[in-house]
Design brief:
3-stranded mixed beta sheet, 173 residues, Glutaredoxin, mainly alpha, dystroglycan binding, 3 strands, 6 helices, secreted, AGR2 protein
């Protein structure tokens, strides 16, 4: 009886993973056929020509498999601070160019992953995660009470932190 239940659990796992693999395959084809439209919606105005991931899980998967760092921007559509940072981020050519070297994700909702809010849930909040899927707590903005917050005037700090995230990648991996 024990062997039988192990076998049914195994078969269930195989069935589930097949179904998930099929879904993942579908997503890929949808993305490739509707390419010009997709980045537009996922960018939410942070850089329409950049390639943005749709979910945290997809972003982690891509970071791990592409060996690129992941940059996550938490923001809200009705937050004036988020809007101001978005405008500066999207209009800064150097930032946009450097952003191409990252797996990118911008979220307008909080995730349940506590690693993404190491010092609280506030917006805008920018976190870097390396391909080993470690949140880089050592790459922070200039506020001691909101470590991952950036204001429009901090854009050069954000740029140097993006460079730092890429440099750490080369020295540590």
């Amino acid at each position: 009886a024990m062997e039988k239940s192990y076998m049914s659990i195994f078969l269930l796992l195989v069935a589930v993973s097949c179904a998930l693999a099929k879904d993942a395959g579908k997503k890929e084809t949808k993305e490739t056929t509707a390419k010009p439209k997709l980045p537009q919606t996922l960018s939410r105005g942070w850089g329409d020509q950049l390639i943005w991931t749709q979910t945290y899980e997809e972003a982690l998967f891509r970071a791990k498999h592409s060996n690129k760092p992941l940059m996550i921007i938490h923001h809200l559509d009705d937050c004036p601070h988020s809007q101001a940072l978005k405008k500066v981020f999207a209009e800064n050519k150097d930032i946009q160019k450097l952003a191409e070297k990252f797996i990118l994700l911008n979220l307008v909702y909080e995730t349940t992953d506590k690693n993404l809010s190491p010092d609280g849930q506030y917006v805008p909040r920018v976190l870097f995660i390396d391909p080993s899927l470690t949140v880089r707590a050592d790459i922070t903005g200039r506020y001691s009470n909101r470590l991952y917050a950036y204001e429009p005037s901090d854009i050069s700090l954000l740029y140097s932190n993006m460079q730092k995230a890429l440099k750490l990648l080369k020295t540590e991996l």
